[in-house]
Amino acid sequence: MPIENISDTARWVAYYRAMETDRADAHFRDPYARKLAGPRGEEFVNHMPRGRQMAWTMIVRTAVFDELILDAVNRKQADLVLNLAAGLDARPWRMALPDTLRWVDVDLPEILTYKTNMLKDERPRCRYEPIAIDLREEAPRQALFGRLGAEAKRVLVLTEGLLIYLTREQVASLARDLHTPSSFRWWVTDLAGPWVLRFMNKSWGKAVAAGNAPFQFAPAEGTAFFSPNGWRELEFRSTFQESQRLNRQMSGAWLWRVFGFFTSARGRAEMRRRAGTALLERVD
User: Fold this and answer.
1) Is residue 121 a part of any domain in this protein?
2) Quick check: is 76 in a domain?
3) What are the two backbone dihedrals, phi and then psi, of residue 170, each rounded to the nearest 5 degrees?
4) Is residue 164 one of the residues assigned to a domain?
């Protein structure tokens, strides 16, 4: 199945959420995922190399994001969630969120139109607002961040599945723009390292590149990449460790655990940081 554009990857990931929802022991329930993924989403999963075998990574990522979002909203009292490159994420409809929370989805016009049309008969749990812009364009992005920053006090930013498609320069520019409004307090993002990038390019690189969505960003320095632009790591959830906690491990995970017994402490730490979800906080 050829990926025609970056929006196609959203259908692919939505089908993974549908797979988890079907389980009796699901860590989350997304009753809209299968509808949003459509037949094309299932075809991607069935035809991509290791399509079904790699579901665990997206399922773990979704569950961890859910936990960090609820903590920021309920404990840290975030009053606005800014979801960048939202894709087919249905959290405003499926999660137990306070009705006073404002949730802003920002993405390309065609994917936002598709999602809102598919969910037009459903009622979101919070104050939902879709905004269509191309995040690669700095001027409209900066104007949007400035406006939202002035309208809220404690903003949580999400970039789930976005950064890996950007260059280092684009990510640095985005980080600077997110740091400009003083109310932008926290930022949750998934992060891959060079080893994972090589694996992903070997498995799916040609397919995503054909859709003008090549995998690019995987900083060897990890979350330290964001420090010069005003963000520091508050928490890092290793994908491999979280997969053990959630019992959503990859096939052959036991081999990696055995390998870890014969690896130095530094080597094990490096393995844990190969991929994960980072909670960043603003540094003034």
Assistant:
1) yes
2) yes
3) -65, -40
4) yes
Q: Which tokens hold the place of 159?
A: 């970039």
pTM, to two decimals: 0.91
Q: Find the CATH number of the domain harbouring 97.
A: 3.40.50.150
Amino acid identity, residue 28?
F
Task: Copy the structure tokens of residue 43.
Answer: 């075809």
How many domains in the chain? Answer: 1
The dihedrals phi and psi of 247, each to the nearest 5 degrees, come to 60, 45
If we measure between CA atoms, which residue out of 186, 176, 141 comes closest to residue 277?
186
Does residue 24 lie within any of the structural domains?
Answer: no
Rounded Cα–Cα distance for residues 174 and 155 (Å): 16
Listed residue (240, 14, 4, 194) closest to 202, CA to CA: 194
| Single-letter amino acid code for the residue at 6 | I
Q: How many CB atoms lie within 10 A of CB 27?
A: 17
198-205: Cβ within 8 A, 24+ apart: 200/164, 203/48, 203/49, 203/50, 203/54, 204/48, 204/49
**Tens-digit pLDDT string for the chain (284 aa):** 566 666 778 998 999 999 999 999 999 999 999 999 999 899 888 887 777 888 999 999 999 999 999 999 999 999 999 999 989 999 999 999 999 999 999 999 999 999 999 999 999 999 999 999 999 999 999 999 999 999 999 999 999 999 999 999 999 999 999 999 999 999 999 999 999 999 888 877 676 766 667 889 999 999 999 999 999 999 999 999 999 999 998 766 546 565 566 677 777 677 788 999 999 999 98
- Domain extent, residue 63, equals 57-282
